[in-house]
Structures are given as structure tokens and as C-alpha cells.
Amino acid sequence: TTPPPADLKNVQGDIIVGFSKRTESSIFFQIDNAEGFRKQLPLLVPKITTAAQAADDKDAIKKHKRAGHKDLLKISGLNIAFSQSGLNKLGVTDDIGDAAFKQGQLANAQGLGDKGSTIGGKFEPNWIPAFKNAVHGVIVISGDCQSTVDERLADAARILKLSAHNGNCHEVLRLDGSARPGDEKGHEHFGFLDGISNPAIEKIDTKPFPGQKTIRQGIVLLGRNGDPTKRPSWALDGSFLAFRYLFQLVPEFDDFLMHNSIPGLTPKEGAEFLGARMVGRWKSGAPLDLAPLKDDPELGRDPQRNNNFQYSFPEDIQTQDRCPFAAHVRKTNPRFDLEGLNPPISTESRHIVRRGIPFGPELSRQEKQQKTTLQGRGLLFKCYQSDITKGFQFIQEAWANAPNFPPFKPADQVPGFDPIVGQAADPTSRTMSGADPKAATTNLQLPTEWVVSKGGEYFFSPSIPTLKSAFGR
Ligand code: HEM
Q1: Is residue 380 within a helix (H) or strand (E), and if so which, with residue range?
Q2: If both were cysteines, with which of 95, 380, 427, 457 could 177 make a disulfide (CB 3.0 to 4.6 Å apart)?
């Protein structure tokens, strides 16, 4: 029998609705006193933002803007999630049914392609120490500004007894993200508009934008329609959160684009074009599949049109005229490259809901002059799915890092690596074809990496009833 749809009041808000945010902090913690923590957890529940509340917040912001207000509405969201080691610490040892989650991200670092060194036969990724030690959980708090976030954190810390001394748990790392300023709002640090394409969720996002794919609830929520795995009853309406701490080498990226500028245009235009070919969208968000030769900012900002493409033009299947096979958005959501095959290969179970936010300062004049990163910046990448092994892990390993993906392309045009996030075991093999549409068989050699992983963890974000009952114990 098909499970009924989820009740929005039972699901944490960042999973299926998403927080409205200018700023967001992730507070990673270790549990010291499991019994005390379990006792306090139900008291945190009234402070947790449900999907129903997140949806109300979105409506309130729309109304506020429509009424012509220029100031930001004071709005914030709070969610909590636990790693496998955190669940173990709490005595929750049922098998939840996801191999990647169970093993944790540290054990997966080499598989994901993260750089590191092998010492005494053991792989050590180049991660920050916090993620090389146990992280039991994360509190995610978003808001219109930092003081709203801090207020909300103080409240949660008091309830959970989050404290460096004699508490139930203590903070091991705090990462603060914020939207970029001015016209760059909504753009990630390489300059491209982000957060355009997320799947619509059945019976929740009932008015999808043209081209937006609707997926069953069970692709994101455990135990709902579309989740084929047997789960413990407390896992219903939870979701897995894959968190990645990704640094971006922005001046180095810009410098590469200038040096490899696509010929036949001014150097600046050729550099812009190469960047767009790597991402699969122009900085404005306009997709190459609809705007293959020239940026179209109006298309970029129009949600009725900017996701309405499938790589389904006749020339898309076997040529890179419109969009390179390896472009970031094509690698991570290949659309008709799989679904247009005969017979079609479904991509439904590969969909993730992305909720990241940039971190770090804008480029300084010195960084621009020296073409070198001097201050850390990047993306606090977050995505939700009902199965990390089929979702994030699969996209990174079997698509972004796999030079022959998407399949069945001309033999002289091996797609290559996702130039933004694809990682190659042998950096000299990190190439892509089709960077220049007029020389599609030429392989462009890419630097080892522009997106540098410094760690992360896999978490489980439980339902509200499960938090209320402290995992039914
Ligand atoms: C889309 C940038 C990491 C998966 C996008 C877009 C940009 C972007 C600019 C286009 C906007 C949109 O369609 O919403 C970046 C940057 C990253 C990063 C700068 C690292 C710093 C990742 C990672 C994954 C990923 C690690 C998964 C392994 C996706 C997916 C889409 C996307 C699934 C939507 C594709 C579509 O539906 O057309 N990204 N991304 N991204 N990215 Fe990333």
C-alpha cells in the first residue's frame, strides 16, 4: 500500500520548504551526557521550525515585499540533525538503511575524491580537524541577520545545555554563511546565480515551474511514497542531510577563464563564455540549453522560463553545440541524457534538495591583483534526500567524477569531469571536452581543483514527533 502524504507540521522546515535566509549558522556539537540530552531534546521541539511554519514565513515575506517595505522582516528558522555516531551515542542503534550515512562522511572522503595523503596505509583527507573527529549533530539556524541567529542560538543552547563545561553537549565548530551583498545576492562566489533548480515535491509544491521535475515525497522523506527501503518506525518523515564544507578558489578560477578565453570573442567575453560552458548556465542564471551563444539576463531571472529545458533539442543528444556534456548542471541533473534514452533511465531517485549558502568575504583588491586566494570563501553545501547512497554520494562519485558520464556520446567526445566539483584521482586526467563549441573534440586540461573540500558529515534530520519522543525511548 502507498503511504499517505506527510503532514507539514511533522517535518523539519529546511527539508521540504527551505528557510528564507540572509544568513545561516551551522553549530556542530558533540554529546557529553546522553541521558541529559535525551531529556532536554523534547523541550527544544517548540523552538524547531516545521515545514508548515517555514511555508508561512515565505508567505509573510512575499506579503511584506508586496506592501512595498524595503526592510527585512525579522524571520528565523531552526532545525537539528544527528550523525550515525550521534545516534549511537544516544543509544539509537537500529539500522536506518543507508550505507553512506552509517559509515559517515570521513570514511567516504577518498571515495568522493577528496584530496589527502595516505599515511601507514590509511587515507587522511586534507580536512579541518573538527570533521576528522566525531561530530554528533548539527543545529542549523537561519535568519534575516546575525543578531536574530545569535538570539535563537542562545535560546537553544540554554534548553539543550550546550556548554563547554558540564553541559549535555558542547560546540565543536560553528560555520557562518551569508548571502553575498548587493547585486550578487543569490549568486555563489564564482558569480553564478544559484538555487534555481530544485525538484518540486508531490502534494507539497503543487504548482511547479515549467520544466521543474516533480518527485515523490519518498525521494526526500523516509518512509513516504517512493522510498523503497525498510526503515525503523522512528525514521518516518526524516531526511538525510549531506553537509560539505567547500572552499572556492575564486581569483584562480577567474584567471583560468581569462587565460583560456574562448577564441573569436573579446578576451572578456570569451572568458564569460567559458565560465558559462563550465557551469551550463550564464552568471545571470540563463541556461545554455536555451541561450547557447549569448547571455539573456531576463531569461536568467524568470522562474517561468529559466528551468524549462531538458537537453532535448535534436542536436543536444550527440553534440555539445548548446551545452557541454560535462557542464556542472548537466552532470548533476542530466535530464534527457538519461530520461530521453530508449528505454528511458529514470533519474527520480537521484534528485536532491539543495539548501546551501555562501561563506567568506568578497574578493579583496589584493586577491584580484595577485590572482591568488588569501581569505577562505566558498559554499556551505547542504542537500536533503531519503538516501545519500543514491543521492549526493552517487551524483558526486558516479556522475561528477566519472569522465564517461553522461553515456552514449560520440567516441571522440568523452565528456570528462564536472569542471566545478568533479574530482580526479589523477589530476592530469581532469579534462573536459566541448569547452569551445567550435572545437568540441578538444580536451581542455583543468587544474587539480577550484572547489576544495575541507570536510563535512552526513546527518539524519528526524521528524517532529520523533524529536518529541526523543527517538521513542
Ligand atoms: C546547480 C554551483 C557544488 C549539485 C548549481 C548551479 C550553480 C552551482 C551555479 C546552477 C543554479 C541552479 O541550477 O540552481 C555550485 C558550486 C559548488 C557546487 C559553486 C561548490 C562550491 C555542488 C555539489 C553538488 C551539486 C557538491 C552535488 C554533488 C548541483 C545540482 C544542481 C546544481 C543537482 C541543479 C542542476 C539542475 O537541476 O539543473 N550548482 N555547485 N553542486 N548543483 Fe551545484
Answers
A1: strand 378-385
A2: 380
Ligand 1, atom 1: closest residue by C-alpha: 329
pLDDT in tens, 26-53: 999 999 999 999 999 999 999 999 999 9
Which residue is closest in CA terms to ligand 1's atom 25? 332
> What pLDDT is stored for residue 204 in this prediction?
96
The model's pLDDT over 96-142, given as tens digits with 9 standing for 90+, comes to 999 999 999 999 999 999 999 999 999 999 999 999 999 999 999 99
Where exactly are the structural domains of the chain? 8-246+456-468
What band does 1 get if pLDDT is binned at 50, 70 and 90?
A: confident
Q: Which amino acid is it at 442?
A: T
Largest CA distance in the chain: 67
The C-alpha atoms of residue 402 and residue 235 are separated, in whole angstroms, by: 32
Distance, CA of 400 to CA of 421 (rounded, Å): 7
Question: Using CB atoms within 10 A of its CB, is residue 446 exposed (0-12), middle (13-18) or buried (19+)?
Answer: buried
- Name the E strands within 43-108: 76-82
Distance, CA 20 to ligand 1 centroid (Å)? 19
Strands 353-354 and 357-359: unpaired
Over residues 268-297, the mean pLDDT reads: 98
- Give the Cα separation of 168 and 78 in Å (integer): 19
